[in-house]
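Write out the bound-state structure for 1-O-phosphono-alpha-D-glucopyranose.
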Amino acid sequence: MIKQAIIPLAGLGTRLLPLTSVLPKELLPINGKPGLEYIIDECIGAGIKEVILVISARKRIIKTYFYNDAFFKKIISKKRKDQRLKTEYSKIKKYKKMIKFVYQNSPRGTGDAILKCRKLIKSKYFLMLLPDDLIVKNNCSLSMLKIHKRHNSSVIASKRVKRKDVSRWGIFKIKKNSSNRFLIKDVVEKPSIKSAPSNYAVIGRYILPAKIFAILKKQKAGKNGEIHITDAIRTLIKQEDKFIGHIFSGKYLDCGSMKGYINSSIKMSKL
Ligand code: G1P
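---
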């Protein structure tokens, strides 16, 4: 049973500057709620019991957000009738109970962030969620956990993107076997339009095997000097590990760019 999730949060958020020069992007509100809370809520809805947040010293304020009890208690003692405040504080306390923090002080890529969590992962598989990708209206992690249970394999979320946009994403080479599922034959990180093996993109929800840690330990830096999770997945596929692509049915909101972030707030407010 998968009960643990990793959320890498140590990225610099340069695509959202100047908003992220002080605040981590994951705490920026989307329709009145920090983006990170949507991701943790998805984990809770999928039955996850422990969430490992990979932060950096620069983003320590994320920890403060969940550990600000003295502040809440002081305000609540003065505003005893404020029910909204009490409800919000209870929610934060619930999150705090299930969160662990791991530090990745230099942004060396998602693979490196995952590797930093290796001593905390207790079972054969774990869930990883990238906070730039919000999926609402349908719990994508929950659907993926069901697929994992049935096939005992790794699972990665996917959606079709425009051909002209393939170099923004990890792209799958696939063998289609149903309308919302496929077997992953290969995956390439941000290929050129010419070399892209399909237009099925990697979206930030992954069910990965703990054996990926051994691969990541030996892996050399790839594109832009980063340790990419995509490269480790590629190695596992070459070793005949089964990876299933799941074309999710929820609504996708890209919060990683300024345009996407603004759009997400507007779309979320209309849901
Ligand atoms: C990361 C992954 C990429 C994936 C994307 C989904 O890229 O490396 O394979 O398609 O997330 O959002 P990033 O957004 O960090 O550039």
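---
The radius of gyration is 19 Å.
DSSP finds nine helices and 13 strands in the chain.
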